[in-house]
Design a protein that fits this description.
Structural class: alpha/beta
Number of strands: 5
CATH class of the largest domain: Alpha Beta
Helix content: 40-55%
Number of domains: 2
Radius of gyration: 18 Å
């Protein structure tokens, strides 16, 4: 039986890059187990076929292309700058701003890069964690970058009410950052990624 907790490998000798990507992925996929490896050899010393996704630096990908091409539906190449697909493997531009990087990861997740990957879990899965219609309205406006006062004006509610809704949203979803809330809103169809 397949586990519901996705396991993700980041293979990148750049420690800072790997840690940054790991932090973003932990925010986007809070239930995932994410492991970072500084080299291909460290990945192979682990259990390399257990991962649902591989985020791999371009240098590592090119040195070990045969290994990663066998796992094409699960691989994403980490590249600096706009890059085309690497032999059918999508690339993620790591030189983007955090907001653009989050959008790119969401696009990859929504469009998919293979049919065999397990679905990413959503943070809210039971009835008590479901957002109310008003909380969804607030979430959409937060995802679009509005500040509390702008949200209050747009929805014709008090500033304290907006703050209360945001607190409830954060508690229900377990997501504290605006980029994380934006990703949640996109993944659940509340906002189109191109309207962020």
């Amino acid at each position: 039986m397949e586990t519901s907790t996705p396991e993700i490998a980041i293979v990148d000798p750049n420690t800072l890059s790997a840690l940054g990507l790991r932090a973003i992925l932990e925010e986007l996929i809070p239930d995932a187990v994410i492991r970072a490896f500084p080299s291909f050899e460290d990945l192979v010393d682990d259990t390399p076929d257990m991962y649902a996704h591989y985020f791999v630096s371009a240098n590592v990908f090119f040195k070990h292309t045969a290994f990663f091409l066998e796992r094409t539906p699960k691989c994403i190449v980490l590249a600096s700058g706009e890059q085309p697909l690497f032999n059918g493997v999508p690339a993620l531009n790591t030189s983007q701003t955090q907001e653009q990087l989050v959008k790119s990861i969401v696009r990859l997740r929504r469009t998919g890069h293979g049919h065999s990957r397990p679905p990413m879990p959503s943070p809210a899965s039971n009835g008590k964690d479901e957002l109310t219609p008003r909380e969804i309205e607030v979430l959409v406006l937060v995802a679009r970058g509005l500040i509390n006062k702008e949200i209050a004006d747009r929805l014709h509610i008090g500033l304290t009410t907006v703050i209360s809704h945001r607190k409830n949203i954060t508690e229900k979803l377990g997501i504290k950052s605006v980029p994380g809330l934006a990703v949640y809103a996109v993944m659940h169809g509340y906002v189109d990624v191109d309207r962020l």
